[in-house]
Design brief:
Helix content is 64%, strand content 0%. It has helices spanning 5-20, 29-42, 49-57. It starts with a helix and ends with a helix.
């Protein structure tokens, strides 16, 4: 069974957070943005337009 677009976006965002990791030397606005997008993704159904928007933003195919 193939993963849904929402699942693939979630995986990409989680991977992005893990790869970037916290940087104590600077403000982590990118990490905060990715975390906010992940939180928003979790709050919408699979057919919500936000899923497609995030897929485009993070280049998820």
């Amino acid at each position: 069974m193939r993963d849904s677009l929402k699942d693939r976006v979630r995986q990409k965002l989680l991977r992005q957070l893990a790869e970037d990791g916290p940087d104590p030397e600077r403000d982590d606005s990118r990490g905060i943005s990715v975390a906010d997008d992940l939180e928003a993704l979790e709050m919408v159904p699979s057919d919500d337009p936000l899923v497609e928007e995030l897929a485009q933003r993070y280049l998820v195919f």
